[in-house]
Structures are given as structure tokens and as C-alpha cells.
Amino acid sequence: MADPAAPHILLVNPWIDDFAAYDVWARPLGLLRLGAVLRDHGCRVSLVDCLDRFHPRAAGGAPGARNGRGPFLKARRPKPPGLADVPRHFSRYGPPEDWLREDLRRLPAPDLVLATSGMTYWYPGLQATLALVRQAFPGVRILLGGPYATLWPEHARAVSGAHRVVGGPAEALILDLVAEETGWRAPARYPLEDPDARPYPAFDLQSALGFVPLLTSEGCPFDCAYCASRLLHPGFRRRRPAAVAREIRFWATSRGVRDFVFYDDALLVDPEAHAVPLLERVLREVPPVRFHTPNAVHIRGITPRTAALMRRAGFHTVRLGLETLEAPPRRPLDRKASPAEFAQAAAYLREAGFGPREAGAYLLVGLPEQDPAGVAEAIRAVRAAGLQPIPAYYSPIPGTRLWPQAMAASRYDLAADPLFTNNAVLPCRREGFDWEFVRTLKRLCGPNPG
Ligand code: B12
User: Fold this and answer.
1) Is the CB of 261 under 6 A from ligand 1?
2) Domain region containing 133
3) Whole-number pLDDT of residue 419
4) Where among 164, 182, 200 does a domain terminate?
5) How far is the CA of 351 from the centre of ligand 1 (A)?
6) Pocket lining: 406 vs ligand 1, CB cutoff 6 Å
7) Residue 198 belongs to a domain
């Protein structure tokens, strides 16, 4: 319920500036989780979503809207200095500036702005967004959080234009942060750190609710050399399967949502304790829906039982995190699965009825010192296993175990600017790994169903 003394909080999801960006089930889940807690404690909460494909002025929604997938609106921009040699166009993704100015003008002035951030190398879009917000509401404090703020805080403090940068998960801190910034304090009505005690994310603030992203676990028990999961969510904790099933049922029955997207880093780890009871409940308690895992699931979690349950529960997009088929010790990047385990998991998926239209495997491309021939071989192995190979171009992240090697291998001074870590510029490109090779890989992979 609204508290007349409570502040008005403006949530901001910034533009993306990049060589390429496509909406594959992307929503600002963290920001909308924070918004739900604040609203539940009496605040008035508004959202300006600079990645809204369904902005009311985009007549009939952005072109090609397919549930959660489709192209963002975009406008060509000059390439950032230092990347002029990259043979690709550079764009700002999201509704145009005048629409957003108008949206900001229509809002009553907020008492505080909470801005989120995505990829580290998207910061120019964030800078431009925050400049617009500062112009619209001079003097209003802006707090910045999210992956970029957590992974590269010094940079974010120096260039983002936010007044304060806060790293890490913030649900448990948010009431204190708002109290520090505005002087308004509300006692927490439940343990804020417990995701099953909090309200559901404030998805209703968006202009369309095409699908619902779900985060049933935070963090990951693995420690892969290229991955930032541990830096973003230290530790590993899971929601209760019964509470997740209840949330899915809520969105499906009261809002007609049909597509659900798992954002988990470790959905299938120890499946008997989590995914199996969750999917069994879904089958019992939820009307027919579709599930998608664009953020990969662990290969070892694919068993005859999980594969069959996933099929029955309505999984439509399944992505496995294969990453590489090069054997350790040459590449001790992760200990997630061996080639034999991958072949086995692929067989279980096929037996359960999944084909390459639904099931794919991500392969990391552009790792430091990676052998191009090895990537081509892995693509063929994935196809031979009956799955769709999907290249995932490597983005080096400070603080990960692979960062020193990435810096040594790169032609850029990676530590000098997050822009150089953009996976689209192949930051660790080596001989044999050029744009022509990227095109060859695309051909080898064949059409990607998305
Ligand atoms: C889900 C996910 C995706 C989804 C989309 C998510 C989205 N919202 O857009 C999909 C699968 C599409 C995706 C794609 C990609 N992703 Co991704 N993704 C993630 C993942 C797993 C979770 C993000 C998330 O939503 N978390 C859940 C919410 C609740 O957390 P949160 O947003 O961080 O918010 C919390 C805090 O940050 C904080 N917070 C957030 N905002 C604010 C604001 C304020 C003011 C405050 C105080 C706090 C605060 O509080 C929130 C609640 O606790 C992260 C890794 C991770 N574990 O976080 C990688 C990650 C962000 N992705 C990454 C990458 C590389 C990619 C890809 C480029 C992969 C590829 N090679 O193709 C693509 C690019 C996408 C594109 N559109 O171009 C990297 C980023 C690397 C970098 N240099 O920045 C990460 C870190 C993964 C990794 N393993 O290292 N991704």
C-alpha cells in the first residue's frame, strides 16, 4: 500500500550501445525485483525502460516481435574511438531519444533514481541514458547497480554519471540504501534476503508482459575460468521448488503468461534436489506453458529422467553449456563435462524427443590461444550429436581466472577500457581467427533457431 511520506523511485534500464544486440528473452529482472520490494513497502515506483521493444510509440510493437525474442529498435552511431577498424556497424539499441525524453517529461520528479547495468562494455549507452535522466531531473541522485557496476566499479564510478555505484545483489540492502539517500525509512516486513518471502518482480511496470524470467537459484557451484557468476553472486542458494511452481502458476493463470525463461546459472545442478521436484510440481499444478533456458544448463544434469521431464513440462529452447571440446590439461577452463558426457547428454535429449530446433549447445569462441580448427571440430561434433551448435563469443571479464591470459593474448589494452572486452571485436583474436573465420563458423553452424 502507498505511504504518502514514501519517496517516488524511478527505475532505469539503460540503452545498449554495441556492434550487435538482439533481444533473446532479456528483461531487467534485478531492477524489477528491487522495484517490487520498494513498492511493497509503500514507495511509488516508475520504470523507464530504454530497451522496451513494445514502447507505445512503436506502432504495434517493434518489428518481428516473437514473444521474448526480436530485434530492438536501433539507430546507427559512430564507432567508439579505438574500435574504428572493426568491420561492423555500431548502433544504439532501444527507443529513440525523443521518445524517452517525452517519457521522462511526463513523470513527476522522482526522489531517487535506481539505474541498472548489463554488460561491462555497454557503458556508453548507460552514460547517454544517465545524461538524459540528469537533464530531466537535475539534482536527483542516481544509484547504479547491476553486472557492470559489480564487475568494473572503478570504471563505473569514473564514467557512468551515477552519483553512487553499488555492487552485488541488493534486495537485502535496498531499504537501507533508500533510507540513506532520501531519509525515509521503512522496517522490512519480511526477511529481504529470502527470495521466497519477497513479492514477485514488478513485471507489470513494463509495457508488455510477453514472458516471465525466473531465477530459481543464485550463483553457481562451479568456478569456470571465463565466468563471472561467482563475482556477481557469491555462494549458491536456491528457492524452494514449491514456491517457484506457485509463482509460475500465478503468472500463467492470472496474467495468461505462456513463456517462462530460466536465468539460472545452475538450474540442473543436483537435479533430484531441485529441477526434478520443480518440474514434477509444474506438471501437477500449472496449465501447459513453455520453458526456455537461453542461459545454458549443465550437461551432467541431463539424465534420462530430467530430459523426459523437461520434454513433458514444455521445454522449447534448451541450451547446454558445452563451451569447448578441447581436453584438459591443455584447456583446464572448467570441469563441467567431458566429451563423453556431452555425447551421453545429447543422446538422452534425443531419446526424450528433442531435436536441433529445440536443443543447442554453446561453444566458446575466441578464447586466448584457442585453436580455430578445434572450434570447427567441436561444431561438427555437436551437429553429429543431433544438436544445434551455437557460437558464444568470449568476453574477458576482470576478476575471472582467465583475465590475465586474456590480457596477455589481446591486441588491446583490455584493462584500459571495457569497450575492448566486447565479444563482438574478438578481443583475444589470434592468427587464423579473423572475420572470415567467423563467417565460416556461422556457415558451419547452419541456421540458428534463436
Ligand atoms: C540471464 C543472463 C543473460 C540473459 C539475458 C539477461 C538480461 N537481463 O538481459 C541472456 C541469456 C539473454 C544473456 C545473454 C548474454 N549474456 Co548474460 N547473463 C545472464 C546472467 C546469468 C544473469 C543476469 C540476471 O538477470 N541476473 C539476475 C538478477 C536478479 O541479477 P542482476 O541483474 O545482477 O541484479 C541484481 C544486482 O546486480 C543488483 N542490481 C541490479 N541493478 C541494480 C541497480 C541498483 C541501483 C542497485 C543498488 C543494485 C542493482 O541487485 C539485483 C538484485 O539482486 C549473468 C550472470 C549472472 N550470474 O549474473 C550473465 C552475464 C551478465 N552475461 C554475460 C554475457 C557475456 C552474455 C552474452 C554476451 C553471451 C554471449 N557470449 O553471447 C549475451 C549477450 C546478450 C545480448 N542481448 O546481447 C556476462 C557479462 C560479461 C560482461 N563483460 O559484462 C555475464 C556476467 C555472464 C558470465 N558468465 O560471465 N545473459
Assistant:
1) no
2) 8-182
3) 98
4) 182
5) 32
6) no
7) no
Pair (21, 116) in one structural domain: yes
Question: Do 221 and 154 share a structural domain?
Answer: no
Nearest residue (by CA) to ligand 1, atom 26, is 30
CA of 118 to the centre of ligand 1 (A): 6
pLDDT for 329: 45
Strand partners, 10: 46, 113
Distance CA 426, CA 433 (A): 9
pLDDT value, residue 449: 55
Element (H, E) at 13: strand 8-13
Domain assignment present for residue 222? The answer is: yes
Residue of 32, 34, 206 to mutate, ligand 1, most atoms within 8 A of C-beta: 34
Indicate if the pLDDT at residue 117 is higher than 60. yes
Question: First-to-last CA distance in the chain?
Answer: 41
- Three-state SS at 233: coil
Q: What integer pLDDT is reported at residue 435 of this predicted model?
A: 82
Question: Which residue is it, cell 544448463?
Answer: 297
Q: For residue 147, how far is its CA from the centre of ligand 1 (angstroms)?
A: 6
Does ligand 1 come within 6 angstroms of the Cβ of 37? no
The rounded distance, in Å, linking the Cα atoms of 167 and 176 is 15
Please count the structural domains in the chain.
Answer: 2
Asked if the structure places residue 247 within a domain, the reply is: yes
Atom of ligand 1 nearest to the CA of 233: 57
Strand runs labelled E in 219-314: 237-238, 259-262, 290-297
Same domain, 253 and 397: yes
pLDDT of 328 strictly over 60: no
CATH number at residue 165: 3.40.50.2300
412 lines ligand 1 (CB under 6 A): no
With a 6 Å cutoff on the Cβ, whether 396 touches ligand 1 is: no
Among 290, 315, 289, smallest CA distance to 302 is for 315
Q: Out of 29, 140, 230, give the residue to mutate to test ligand 1, the one with the largest number of ligand atoms within 8 Å of its CB.
A: 29
- 193 inside domain: no
| Residue among 112, 183, 120 at smallest CA distance from 148 | 120
Atom 44 of ligand 1: nearest residue by CA position: 145
Same domain flag for 144 and 104:
yes
pLDDT at residue 448, as a whole number: 66
Is the pLDDT score of 331 beyond 80?
no
Angle at 315 between CA 242 and CA 450, to 5 degrees: 130
User: Among the atoms of ligand 1, which is closest to the Cα of residue 422?
Assistant: 83
Could you tell me the three cell numbers for 23? 533481444
Give the closest residue (by CA) to ligand 1 atom 89. Answer: 227
Secondary structure class of 95 (helix, strand, coil): coil
**Mean pLDDT lowest for which of 86-95, 207-216, 329-338?**
329-338
228 C-alpha to ligand 1 centroid (Å): 10
